[in-house]
Amino acid sequence: MSASEQFGIYIHIPYCIQRCSYCDFATYVQSEILNPERYVALVKEEIPLRKHYFGFSPDTEKKLNTVYFGGGTPSLISSDLIVGLISELNKHGLTTGPDAEITIEINPATIDERKIEHYLSAGVNRFSVGAQTFHDRLLKMVKREHNAKQTLQTLDLLKRYKLNFSFDLLFALPTQTVEELKSDVEMAVEIGSSHISPYCLTVPESHPLSKNRPLEDEQVEMFDIIHQHLTAKNFNRYEISNYSLPGKESRHNRLYWDDHAYWGLGLSAHSYSKTSEWGHRFWNPNNIDVYEKQIRSELSVLPDNQIERLEKHQALTDFCHTSLRVAEGLSLARLETKFDAQASAKALEIAQPMLQHGLIALENNHLKLTHKGVLISNQIFEKFTFLASDISE
Q: What is the pTM (predicted TM-score) of this model?
């Protein structure tokens, strides 16, 4: 890994007060699996076991650009355990200096002043609030334990400390009205969020939450309402599902979209290393017993079913998909530098019909999704999915 290559670490904390009815992440009610102290001990043991996947020797020191505690609800467990994980990274040469972005996901009513001060003492400087909506009836519908009053109390606490925080906004919920959505967006801005992540509820047709959802046209209207309101308030859509005030983008998430390496620690966490020609991905099991067994047995080389060495066409697909997600778009120059002129020409060829239909724009040698294109982005990504036969190795 070159000195200029950015590098971040994601740490999965799988504990929740309850399982939300729409969640498909590897999370558990806290009483259902091993206690947090035991789990965090496993994550600490994982660090020296897997360092070599990034070309690091045991004594390698690497400055971390970002650390992200996700879940689950990281703020649910003791702050001592979170701070201890940051210390453990530093102990193994993965240092978090004053320039590092350290984010922790929190839920309303799971933090207090003591926890905040403890986080801040360890360098945590960004908070992601999983509030979803300010309407109690909608929170109950998706089986969230907190209420709107607790959300406001938590956000007020973050404001009093003048902290940088992001707000998760869930929309297209069953029976949700446009008026309710508008008030959610307005409140998220007024309360002081510097970053807002709107997510359209996505569940299978057989799921109970699929009934009485807004129709597709209404979902598009809701998306447009969010976009118009946030851009009017100086928020920039820097990625399909993320808006921020200037300079408040999630640096950790940019690692994923900008083709940098990242390491996922903990249950079900995924990683991307660039130590092979086209990079490779590896991941931990999502079964807690299997994860514990692998760590306890000091398994430093992962089984074949937990690692994927990318071929050129797979790396090209990933590069195009992640680049098209961000506002800057897909740089044809970067594409040619990483791959070759054939790959750049192929991408431009694929884009031609979409350029003519106003789904993609070509600006400064970058292919960018238009607002119209964002609405059907998954269909566009399908067009930029390559087979081995599409390109020469």
A: 0.93
